[in-house]
Amino acid sequence: MIDLRSDTVTKPTEAMRRAAFEAEVGDDVYVEDPTINLLEQKAAEMLGKEAALFVTSGTQGNQIAVLTHCQRGQEVIMEQDAHIYYYEGAAMSAFAGIQPRTLKGHRGAMNPTEVKAAIRPEDIHFPETGLICLENTHNRAGGAIVSLENMQEIYTIANEHHVPVHLDGARLFNTVVASSVSVKEYAAQTDSIQICLSKGLGAPVGSIIAGTESFIARARKWRKRLGGGLRQAGIIAAPGLLALTEMVDRLEEDHRHAQKLADGFAQIPSLKIENIVETNIVLVNVEGTGHDANQFLQELKNEGILAVGFGPHTVRFTTHYDVNGSQIDVVIERVGELCASKL
Ligand code: TLP
Asked: Pairing relation of β-strands 75-79 and 129-135?
């Protein structure tokens, strides 16, 4: 199978497995796991934040950020297709008692003027705006890069209104590699940030949240409350360290593969590329084949290729470390044959 469902499917490298085996460990609830401490230190330093916390997943990191920033009954502003709203099981309502306020973005970026207008003035009828959430790259916008300028404008507005900003940077390093803007510059436009170690960076598990010392101290308590207090978890943090130190630059290869895939699919008359491919995600509209996304995915599977549905007629292909250039050629060829013959 050539698995293009997500960059979450990557398996840990040999070096990661070795690092896990050899990791020095301790009890992380006592902040005594040397490998986790090192990972958190390294991550904070890379992101230019005072402190960082290792969490089990991107979803846990995002939700701990919401819980730490907000009070029950507040409102959180986010783009209408943001992962934190679309794919996290309404966790912010279920756990934090938050009301989401969604704005339609353009290629994942919210309009700063609309963000400003959505911040609630003091009024007995209104919830207070507790947080603004951004996402970069933006998953459902097809791995779109949200520009530094857009983030700067929103952060300035947020500061003027004393509203914190959280960035879901599950794929922020894809943005960094594709945009030649440093990770610190993006992170500087946020009060807190979540980055995934287990997507394109290839670690088997884990995310980082980062912010001020006081934010992270409170986040650590929320992580514990949620049952996410870790013990000898240096074993899973060690691959995360390699994810940050060894795996960032190679994301460029995933971007080249995605571009190649999009160029190849663009030659197939019944397919239409829906996104401008900037990073490692290609969204393909399959309506022209006369099939819906699910039927198309089944045909693909019969050809040994996996992708995921992203809408009634939209299929997402995501490139990653475990798919090489010749497999990309095979995918283009087989999809071409499939569309020419059966679809
Ligand atoms: N995204 C997954 C699915 O949940 C859709 C994927 O295959 O793309 N933020 C963003 C922007 C994400 O894309 C994801 C995962 C998360 C957060 C959540 O991370 P995990 O899966 O570690 O909870």
From this structure: parallel
